[in-house]
C-alpha cells in the first residue's frame, strides 16, 4: 500500500506542481460562477429588464480541456519525466516495493485531482446559495463528471507510462488508446462502404453514434455527455479501474532495462507494428478511393498506407531514444 516516507518523498519532489494544479482546480469552478455573475451585473446595468443570471453547464458552454489536460500533465511528470531524468530509477532503488511506488504516485494523483475539484464544488455550491441565480442547469452532473473524467485521463496516462520507455511513447500510446474504439469500428466501416455502398456506412455509424461512442475516452472532452443520463459516467468509472489495473500490473512486471524503447515489454512491439500498418492500409485505402472514386485509387492508397504505416511504426517502436 502507501508508505508515509515514500509519500513524503513524492510530495517534496513535485510539491510546486501539485500545489499549482490543486489551486487551479479548486478555484476554476467558483471563478466561472463569479464571471457569469459579473456578466449578469453588466447586462443588468445596460438592460435592466433583460438581464438574467443563469448558470448553465450545457455542452455549448463548457468543456473539460483544463481538467483533462492537468491530469495528463500530472501523470507525465510522475512517470514519463521521472523516467527520462533517471529519477524513477532512484525511487525504485529505495527499500519500497514496486507496488508501493505506483500506488503512492496514484494516491497523490487522487488527492490533487479529486479533492481539489470536490472542494471547488463545495465552494461553488456556497456561491450559488449566496448569489441566488435564477436557474442552474447540469451543475451537479458536470461537477461529478469532471472528477470522474479527469481521473480517467490521469489513469490512462499513468498506465501508458508504465508500459512505455519514454515520454513521447507514453503520450502516443495514451492517445492511441483514447481513439482506438473509433478506429476499430470506423475504419472497417469506411472500407466496407467501398464495396457495399453508403447505406452500410450510414447504418454502421448510426449504431456507433447511438450506443458505442461513450466507450471512446477522448469523446468526454466535449461536454455533450452532460445532457445524457448520469449513468453514462459509469463507463469512464469502469475504464478508470481498468486503466489502473493495467498500469499497476505493468509497473510490477515490466522492468526498466528497456528505458528509451517505445515499449518496456518487447513482446508488444510486433503486434502494435502490425496494428498500425493495418490502420494505415485501411485509412489510406479509403482516402485513395475518395480522391478518385475508383478502385484503382483504393488499391494505390492501400499500398501507400502499408508503406507509411510500416515505416512510422518501425522507426517509432524500434528506434531507442537515448537520454
Structure description:
The protein has 323 residues and is mainly alpha-helical. It has a domain at 4-166 and 230-257. It is built from 11 helices and 2 strands. It has helices spanning 4-13, 15-46, 65-85, 87-93, 98-131, 139-163, 167-196, 198-212, 234-253, 269-292, 295-317; strands spanning 54-56, 135-137. The protein has a two-stranded parallel sheet with strand order 1-2. Helix 5 (98-131) runs antiparallel to helix 6 and helix 6 packs across helix 7. The longest helix is centred in the middle third of the chain and has 34 residues, at 98-131.
Helix content: over 70%
Give the N-to-C terminal Cα separation. Answer: 31 Å
Topology order in helix (H) and strand (E) letters: HHEHHHEHHHHHH
The tally of helices reads 11
Percentage of residues in strands: under 5%
Q: What is the overall silhouette?
A: flat
Average pLDDT works out at: 86
Rg (CA only):
23 Å
Strand order, biggest sheet? 1-2
Task: Please give the largest β-sheet.
Answer: 2 strands, parallel
Structural class: mainly alpha
Organism: Bacillus changyiensis
Keywords: Membrane, Transmembrane, Transmembrane helix
InterPro entries: ABC-5_transporter, ABC_transptr_acetoin_YtrC/YtrD
Transmembrane segments: 16-34, 102-123, 143-164, 171-190, 231-251, 272-289, 295-317
Amino acid at each position: 500500500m502507501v508508505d508515509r516516507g515514500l509519500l513524503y518523498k513524492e510530495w517534496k519532489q513535485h510539491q510546486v506542481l501539485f500545489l499549482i494544479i490543486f489551486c487551479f482546480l479548486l478555484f476554476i469552478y467558483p471563478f466561472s460562477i463569479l464571471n457569469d455573475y459579473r456578466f449578469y451585473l453588466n447586462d443588468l446595468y445596460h438592460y435592466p429588464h433583460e438581464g438574467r443570471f443563469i448558470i448553465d453547464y450545457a455542452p455549448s458552454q463548457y468543456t473539460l480541456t483544463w481538467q483533462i489536460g492537468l491530469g495528463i500533465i500530472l501523470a507525465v511528470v510522475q512517470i514519463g519525466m521521472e523516467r527520462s531524468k533517471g529519477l524513477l530509477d532512484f525511487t525504485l532503488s529505495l527499500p519500497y516495493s514496486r507496488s508501493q511506488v505506483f500506488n503512492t504516485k496514484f494516491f497523490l494523483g487522487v488527492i490533487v485531482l479529486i479533492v481539489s475539484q470536490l472542494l471547488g464544488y463545495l465552494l461553488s455550491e456556497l456561491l450559488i446559495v449566496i448569489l441566488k441565480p435564477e436557474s442552474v442547469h447540469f451543475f451537479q452532473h458536470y461537477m461529478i463528471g469532471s472528477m470522474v473524467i479527469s481521473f480517467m485521463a490521469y489513469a490512462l496516462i499513468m498506465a501508458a507510462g508504465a508500459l512505455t520507455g519514454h515520454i513521447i511513447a507514453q503520450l502516443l500510446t495514451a492517445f492511441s488508446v483514447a481513439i482506438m474504439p473509433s478506429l476499430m469500428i470506423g475504419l472497417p466501416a469506411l472500407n466496407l462502404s467501398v464495396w457495399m455502398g453508403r447505406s452500410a456506412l450510414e447504418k454502421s455509424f448510426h449504431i456507433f453514434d447511438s450506443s458505442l461512442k461513450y466507450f471512446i475516452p477522448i469523446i468526454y472532452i466535449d461536454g455533450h455527455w452532460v445532457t445524457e443520463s448520469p449513468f453514462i459516467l459509469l463507463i469512464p468509472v469502469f475504464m478508470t479501474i481498468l486503466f489502473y489495473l493495467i498500469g499497476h500490473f505493468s509497473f510490477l512486471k515490466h522492468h526498466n532495462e528497456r528505458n528509451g524503447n517505445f515499449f518496456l515489454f518487447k513482446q508488444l512491439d510486433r503486434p502494435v507494428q502490425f496494428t498500425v500498418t493495418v490502420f494505415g492500409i485501411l485509412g489510406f485505402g479509403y482516402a485513395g478511393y475518395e480522391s478518385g472514386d475508383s478502385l484503382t485509387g483504393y488499391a494505390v492508397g492501400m499500398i501507400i498506407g502499408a508503406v507509411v504505416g510500416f515505416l512510422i511504426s518501425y522507426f517509432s517502436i524500434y528506434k531507442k531514444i537515448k537520454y
